[in-house]
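Troubleshooting: if your tokenizer reports a length mismatch, compare your output against this known-good record of 354 residues.
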Amino acid sequence: MKISACMIVRDEHDLLPQSLKSIRNLCDEIIVVDTGSIDDTVEIAESFGCKVYHHPWQNDFSLHRNQSIGYATGDWILILDADENLISDINPENFKAKLKKLPPEVCALVCTIQEKRDEITGKWFGNRFFRKSSGIHYEHCIHNQPRYDGFSGMTDIVINHYGYSLSPEKMKAKYARTEALLNKRLFENPEDYEALKYMVDIHMANRDFEKAIECGTKCLELLPVVSPQEMQTYSGVYFRMAKSYLSRWSETEKDIYADRAVQWARHGVKLFPDDIDLNFTMAQIGYRSDDYDLYKKHADRYDAAVKELDNPPALTEFETEITDVAAINRNVFSVAQVHRDAIKLMHDELGGGK
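Known-good structure output:
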């Protein structure tokens, strides 16, 4: 049983060492595709014994991700970026023994991804381990998605992501690059609702809330599914729409924006009653409208959902036959301590309903 880690990198002097340290004992080989570093990234990778391959950047993350996978010789592949590190204490021998016991139809394993800045500010779940024999490959030039044959299994493995702990200048460049690649996707397919979903984030980061609202509305109009279970990865669009309207309300004090924020949040929480972000937003709306009952209803739901996220079931073995991991594969924003404190503060300011 052999595990290959596959990475694509470029100018990752600051973050690459801790990433490689976190996986070198678990992985039998580390494949690094460098896309044009001008710092000492290549030297760092080679000092860890990585197999380094050089491919000029082609504005396509999937292309380079698939190149790295093509060089791998392991039975299982771990996908990791230089701005991530595996923090779980994994015994390599025990882990590989579990891999050997997995049913052959289980071809991917889910990890918890934690967004790290000064604290944990977001969590989501994603497939990171794949059987090489599953035909694993990635699609889309940006926000690339894995495609493979078989089922997914759940693990208790945790990965920290530091991709947004960058300087303002680097974040600005990152958003600009992402926006350019999303525009490329939309030029090739104007009905790419997934690209529109991600474009909402870009416009919100740039505080262009009108464009965020436009993209979010179009995304949901084009979405070909109607059941909440199938729409789970798009529940965040309702949160972003409500947040964008709340931001416009704060900027303009026009009640029409407040009304639209309430409409989007209510619609979203009706579809996804346990959604952390939407319940936080509804609690905010209750607070702003001095409606204690509305605040309390959604603050309680928020607390329950956060508690469940913070205390997942203990996993001593891999859980298998998760047929639709996409149902939980989205970022959750409102989990930082500042959000938890805000819920308590709103309760106190409303006088506990008195």
